[in-house]
From TrEMBL:
This is Type I methionyl aminopeptidase. It comes from Streptomyces haneummycinicus. The lineage of its organism: Bacteria, Bacillati, Actinomycetota, Actinomycetes, Kitasatosporales. InterPro entries: Creatinase/aminopeptidase-like (IPR036005). It comes from the Bacteria. GO terms for molecular function: metalloaminopeptidase activity. GO terms for cellular component: cytosol.
Length: 61
């Protein structure tokens, strides 16, 4: 699907250190945990598509 003016999307990479890259959702329905208990990090940016290009909405001022 081509990105068009007015669209917003979330980019959510997850980095997992070592081990396998498998994970599961914890019983709280929100938390993600690696299956082998290795350290991981998750970040998210919300990006708006504007007529002048993409605009990251979640950056710090």
């Amino acid at each position: 699907m081509p990105l068009r003016h007015g669209m917003c999307l979330a980019i959510e990479p997850m980095l997992i250190a070592g081990g396998t890259d498998t994970y599961h959702t914890a019983p709280d329905g929100w938390t993600l945990r690696t299956n082998d208990a290795t350290r991981a990090a998750h970040v998210e940016h919300t990006v708006a598509i504007t007529t002048s290009g993409p605009r990251i909405l979640t950056t710090r001022p």
